[in-house]
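Students often ask what a holo structure prediction actually looks like on paper. The answer is less mysterious than it sounds. You provide the chain, you provide the ligand, and the output is a string of discrete structure tokens encoding the 3D arrangement of the protein together with uridine-5'-diphosphate.
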Amino acid sequence: SKTVTILNLPFINTTNQQFLLALTQRIQQKQNTFIVTANPEIAVYAYDHPQFRQLIAAADYITPDGIGIIKASQIIKQPLKERITGFDTLVSLLELANQHQLKIYLLGAQKAVLQKTVVNIQKKYPHLEIVGAHDGYFTDEKAISAEIKAAQPDIVAVALGYPKQEQFIARNRQLAPAVWIGVGGSFDVLSG
Ligand code: UDP
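The corresponding structure tokens follow.
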């Protein structure tokens, strides 16, 4: 599909609905998928840090998460169709997981926030299976990697903030043929 390049990053030019359809197919086919939902802060950080830019350029999808990216696309006369945020995409994936009884692994946020997030997700989406959850303040990444590898989730939601979440995904995404998505502060919202 088509992309629009802003600050040297190829943003997908699609709607939330079309994007979710593509993700649904990729999950059904067990295709390994790395999603970066890039707001202007991430895009500028990537512009200033070539190593990080290369790391996220290896993602399957870079979505425009923020009105600033949409505005920039209009200025260069290649308007992006829609804003696609990490939070909205996570909620859509949770709905999808609930419909298809998918397995999800949650990584990130403070322990109390994560615990509330797990409870709220399980209440609202009773048919999805949370196969593991770990807070975002850890020293032993190997233990988490092993847990994800053993659990073989369909979706891995990583809420460590950028650049940590994208770096974690780049290092670990081969452990499971899942949709791996960095979701920033989404657990802080879902815990409320
Ligand atoms: N976080 C984490 N581990 C860290 C640093 C941050 O789990 O080492 C969590 C933090 O608790 C919060 C989220 O990552 O839930 C960061 O949210 P923010 O809105 O700052 O994300 P950003 O916009 O920076 O991607």
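The pocket of uridine-5'-diphosphate is lined by residues 108-110, 136-137, 159-162, 164, 184-185, 187-188 (CB under 6 Å).
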